[in-house]
Specification:
Blueprint lengths: L1 E7 L2 H8 L7 E6 L6 H12 L9 E7 L10 H14 L7 E6 L6 E7 L13 H15 L20 H14 L6 H10 L3 E6 L6 E8 L2 E4 H4 L5 H21 L7 H4 L2 H4 L8 H17 L1
Antiparallel strand pairs: 1-3, 2-4, 3-5, 4-5, 6-7, 7-8
Helix pairs in contact: 1-2, 2-11, 3-4
């Protein structure tokens, strides 16, 4: 599973592309928009975007693509569920979105359009979105048992000999532990539980860390040699991001499992309906917003 994120300024063009019948498009789900027809969807997005007129690119567009080898087991329900987990994991909450499936390619893929102006008129954060998306896609691929198109996960490890066997064991331990830890002490403790020692390499004559070495069964490996994502700087960045997300979740009073905020909506998402009151609610919010600006 991989994701491509882009931003734009035209909801009309974006909706036309996502709902293009020439791509055998099927609208699967939506939240916060009128689902009566194409024009209703566009109008709903535009009205909410007007709550934050200073944002020049209010259109968020995500493509979630899966391996063709997973096609047989990826029905609409499961794909929408994975999309909901992805949105929640990326912090794309409290805003409008639609999810459509295209069948113009061999591999299954979804298009998600979301409003970068949330329901309160604030901008949905895109900070480090590509890095966070790459990491989240790997997590979801593992969680749902999806096919890894390439990389270390495809290696026939039962045929490996030392030291490569140990190297791949450390790779899997790091892949599982880093997303769950918030700082180096927590990570080193988790690795120690797996029989892996952690040693930091300092810059000559200073206390500045310039690298990290992981060792098991008497075989030491530089983090970057295990995989580029496990260099000291990249792990340190990932831990810092985990820490900020945990603090943010605590401040919002979020539940420990962020997926819960979307997964309970799955039944409703799979049955998009036309809400006759939605436009009136949007108009009222926009009227209040304009009144505040005049005061």
């Amino acid at each position: 599973m991989i994701a491509k994120i882009s931003k734009g300024g035209s909801f009309g063009g974006a909706v036309d592309y996502v709902l293009d019948k020439g791509k055998d498009a099927e609208l699967l789900a939506g939240l916060g928009v009128r689902m009566k027809d194409r024009d209703s969807i566009v109008r709903s997005f535009r009205m909410q975007a007007a709550l934050n007129p200073h944002l020049s690119k209010p259109v968020g567009h995500i493509v979630l693509a899966f391996s063709a080898q997973d096609a047989a087991r990826l029905d609409n329900r499961r794909m929408v569920g994975i999309a909901a987990e992805y949105l929640s994991g990326m912090g794309i909450r409290n805003t409008q979105f639609i999810i459509a499936r295209h069948r113009d390619r061999e591999h299954p893929h979804l298009h998600i359009l979301f409003n970068r102006v949330d329901n309160d008129g604030r901008t949905v954060s895109d900070r480090n979105d590509r890095y966070r998306s790459e990491r989240l896609c790997k997590e979801l691929t593992v969680r749902h048992g999806l096919y890894f198109a390439s990389g270390k996960e495809n290696v026939k490890e039962h045929r490996l000999r030392e030291p490569d066997k140990t190297k791949y064991e450390i790779f899997h331990a790091l892949r599982d532990a880093v997303p769950r830890c918030r700082d180096w002490p927590e990570l080193t403790a988790a690795l120690r539980h797996e029989g892996i020692a952690t040693e930091f390499r300092m810059r000559g004559g200073t206390s500045d860390v310039q690298g990290v070495v992981f060792a098991r069964n008497g075989y030491p490996f530089n983090g970057s040699k295990i995989d580029r994502q496990f260099s000291f700087s990249k792990i340190d960045h990932a831990l810092s991001l985990n820490r900020r997300q945990a603090l943010s979740a605590n401040e919002r009073g979020s539940v420990s499992n962020p997926v819960a905020s979307f997964s309970h909506l799955l039944e409703d998402l799979l049955q998009p309906v036309y809400d006759a009151d939605e436009e009136r609610r949007l108009q009222e919010r926009l009227r209040k917003k304009r009144k505040q600006h005049r005061l």
